[in-house]
Specification:
MetI-like fold, mainly alpha
């Protein structure tokens, strides 16, 4: 095959690609058409359902609360895991299998069991933490985000030479804080962003814990609309889908934008 020859897609691959696209797109198109029907007439096409959602003050409140919860979860998770994973790769590599095993536990523990356990364990805590979403829910969401952020950071640290970067930084007189923030973090930025976007998608779509803990988040609001209004329910479901896919596309662009470069340490000659 010459350099100028275009690679052709096999007919079977094209068929499976079309079937996969239809599997995902047909339900979305049907939901979109349903959301464009008027509440009074039931006829297409109108944006009344979207206007009903956007004019609802509870929509803005729930969306803002879930977004703030996601930012707090991202910040707390990174503060805990970045130094931990860095220290494990640098000094305690034998603990990697243990932490990897612990990171799998949130996958096998059902959310309903997790929230019941947390409600009982955190009951003695002050009301400003136990009875507020920015305390209790953030603690629960950090547990849910733990495996996603950990495995993302672990892959990022394995892609760089942690020992060489640390030794070179300290040989130039840098402190541990300077080494972590000015040498290590820039090299794992893509991994940290990938874990952050996954955490955003998780928090924006989590329903079970918020519902059982009686907090009004965006997924709880979606469930309320689904039970009370038909056409606006389709509209808000598409909005939720768009927010989640925006996070996923951001993750995709971060992965593609990452250049395959090797950290170089300049030394005196």
């Amino acid at each position: 095959m010459t350099a100028g020859t275009k690679r052709r897609i096999a007919p079977s691959a094209a068929i499976w690609l079309l079937l996969g696209a239809a599997y995902f797109l047909i339900p979305l198109i049907a939901t979109l058409l349903f959301s464009l029907r008027g509440e009074l007439t039931g006829k297409c096409c109108t944006l009344d359902s979207y206007g009903t959602i956007l004019e609802d003050p509870q929509f803005v409140k729930a969306l803002r609360q879930s977004f703030v919860l996601s930012l707090e979860t991202i910040a707390l998770t990174l503060v805990i895991l970045v130094p931990t994973v860095y220290w494990v790769h640098l000094k305690l590599p034998r603990l990697r299998p243990v932490i990897s095993f612990l990171a799998l536990i949130p996958f096998v523990v059902p959310p309903i069991v997790l929230v019941v356990g947390l409600l009982d364990v955190l009951r003695p805590t002050p009301d400003w933490f136990y009875a507020k979403p920015y305390g209790f829910l953030v603690a629960a969401y950090v547990i849910l985000a733990f495996p996603y952020v950990y495995f993302s950071l672990d892959a990022g640290f394995r892609a760089i030479d942690v020992h060489t970067l640390t030794e070179a930084s300290q040989s130039l007189g840098a402190t541990w804080r300077t080494t972590l923030f000015r040498v290590i973090l820039p090299n794992i930025r893509a991994a940290a962003l990938a874990g952050s976007f996954l955490t955003l998608a998780i928090v924006m779509g989590e329903f079970t814990i918020a519902s059982l803990a009686a907090f009004d988040t965006f997924p709880v609001y979606i469930q309320y609309i689904n039970q009370t209004k038909a056409y606006p329910a389709a509209a808000v479901s598409l909005m939720s889908f768009g927010i989640t896919w925006a996070a996923m596309l951001a993750l995709l662009f971060v992965g593609r934008g990452r250049t395959a470069r090797t950290a170089q340490i300049a030394g005196t000659r």
